[in-house]
User: Fold this.
Amino acid sequence: MLVFVIIISLHFHKFSEAETLKIGAIFDTESLIKERAFYHAIRQIEPINGRKIEGLVQNVPPNDPFEATLAACHLIESGVLAILGPTTHENSHMIQTVCDNKDIPLLDVRFVVQPKNSISFYPSQQILTQIYIDLLEAWNFKNFVILYENDESLIRIAELLKLYDGNGHKMVVRQLDKYQNGDYRPTLKEVWQSEATHFVLDCSTDILEDVLHQAQQVGLVTNKQFYIITNLDFHTLDLTSFQYSETNITGMRFIDPDSDTIRNLGLTLFRNDFTNLESGFIEAWKIKLEMALIIDAVMMFGEALNGLPKNFATPSIDCMSAEAWTYGTTLTNLIKSINYPGYTGLIQFDNFGLRSAFGLEIIELKEGGIIKVGNWNYSDGLNFNRVYSPNPPPLEVGSLINKTFIVITCLTEPYGMRKESEVPLHGNQRYEGFGIDLIAELSKKLGFNYTFIIREDKKNGEYDETTGQWTGMIGDIINGKADLAITDLTITSERESAVDFSTTFMSLGISILYQKPKKALPSFFSFADPFSLTVWKLLAAAFFGASIALFILGRISPSEWQNPYPCVEESEFLVNQLSLRNCFWFMVGSLMQQGSEIAPIAFSTRMVAGTWWFFTLIMVSSYTANLAAFLTTESPDSPFKDVFELVQVAEKKGIKFGAKINGSTEKFFRDSKHIDEYQKIYQYMKNHEDEVMVNDNKDGVYKAEHENYAFFMETTSIEYETQRRCSLSSVGHSLDEKGYGIAMRKNSSYRTALSTAILKLQEEGVLAKLKRKWWEEKRGGGLCPQQDKAAEGTPLNLKNVGGVFCVTIIGTVLSCILVFIEMVLHTFKKSLHVKKPFKVLLMEEIRFYFRTSAMLKPVTSPKPKPPDYGFITS
Assistant:
């Protein structure tokens, strides 16, 4: 009866396990929306012959192949039928290897050039490249610049260069950010200076918006430029700030967010983020290609499961064994052989496992947003059905046409300056500068006239509590002396309570102007800089440890005990060359990569020596390479790195600091009552006002250049001065964020028109062009170009060289195991030879080895045979 119950239980357990078919997925650490898409697809699959589909998810860091391998093994041992792979190349490569060994299908949704045994649902790059070429020819791109992000982008670009027949057209390839610091302006500025107008942009959605913003800042997003964006998720970004730039920006997409299918999918995937259908329509625009591919891959996998035998055996595989799943290849071929209509269109694979027969939409960014202008499919190629939206209504300028404004400014470089001329000038022609040109551009756009007047005392304006009146240019606006005020006039809450400001035409913050730090002199022990102190300590420990290990193994290993007299066949004792002193000398010679008369003989000692040689090879090479970096770079010796260090070292090092009297910078420190350091700065400036405060920024710049003085100043003004005074530099990051605006009387009717026109100039790149003109080109600009900061030499720490220490330790441990095997075998052989018990000889050997000072080893001879006294018979 008990046997019957056990059999029934086992049968029921086996049947229960067969109830579920499992599919695994490996995602990056932070991928909640991907998991949501994965489980949504699982729920859409009908049970296969009564067996339900279950999803198992493992999260791993983006670039950690070891963790990815462990995750893949865990899923395989859990009995998954397939694995949906990660998006990073490093992880996917290792998971691919594991799946190949176990014959488990790998569903890949990332960009690959040529999949091996995985099933790549991502569109074939060769076909996508052909679409790029079709667009280049349709748009008549003769000479163009290719801007790419990283190595993966370069692979795609290489396909384009290989297939595109330009017939002598010029193609220039530039990496956006070779230093990976998020600043794309140097490359974009170089492209702008070349007057290129046609671009192919290949980068991820993580940086695409920043690239376009910085391109706009340098003047590359105007009505003169044409862009082809290769990113298939281009439409998911917020591109509002580029809609009115009149730039032709073309992209591609697989997913139409306006379709009911995608809208319903948005409702499902983002169900926790909204409660109505309108929000679901908005969220549909956030569905990226990878999310749709995950759903398509899982649902197509469920479709292929119907082609397997009715009661096929699910895999039960140990990742450490050599076994593979019987149906793995069959399932892979089934997936590749069927056609499936997914969210990303028809999914069909060619003989190489590439998704080649597909279609997509061609889109453009217009003033109304993203619009569809055509499509591409495998059979018909590229087709356009452009529908141009009606022109937007003209800017409401009627109220400003032929109106005349009195514009007040002050002669502050580079916002307003007297023009240098050999002939007398009159009226507005007497002045030039950034503010002067900005008013001129606004006048062209809005149709008003203007006359400049100058505020000679250069006071922007402050509220006088004694008189209850505003001074400076703010007071002139309130009193009706001027209609507009423009200069380096900071928008503050106090000023905005008295006058109106236009939208910000320049963003900035407060930073420190100080003398450029001198290069630090090399230290006396600068040769030790390539390694951190921890690595030097571990290096010394490794040296002593390896030397002692070689000495111990040399004593234990029988092969190291040699006959000192080769001519004598049976010597009475043996000698060992691996004394403690010789072992240290051998390790020193290896470390210095020099020869030595000492040569290990046994397998174990040679293994230790080889491991140490490998260790020294890597360490010496790393030291040499990093030493070159330290010798070619010089670290600046700055007395402080930011405002907090300035407060700490100012008194000790005799550094004075100040700002412009009654300026917005002084008020910033006065009102920053929650930061103790800022309050200390304000108290110091008030207590030493006559000594450290200045009436004009020029005086502060002079003091910073000729005295031990730190001047708090707007970042834009610092940038202007450091372009012309090479002995000065900016120290630390911006302390706040603010902007300059055009001041006008409260409740002015033309505020909206001016703000809209400024935004228009910003989108067209006019403001960036004006800033480049007055900061880098005019009045001595470019004398001290901002040099790219050379990467400073960084000492290698344990993370950099930890692997070689690990290899050395493992090699030493293996040598210890080998030497004990060698000793046991030698003792056993010796016991047979000398006719003594094995245990006795083994204990004798061990006792001798612990006599570390003994370097002569007696030879154990066999017992002599007793004499034969027998009679000789004839």
The chain has five domains: 19-122+290-343, 125-253+358-384, 404-509+741-777, 540-619+801-858, 637-736. Residues 174 and 810 are 45 Å apart (CA to CA).
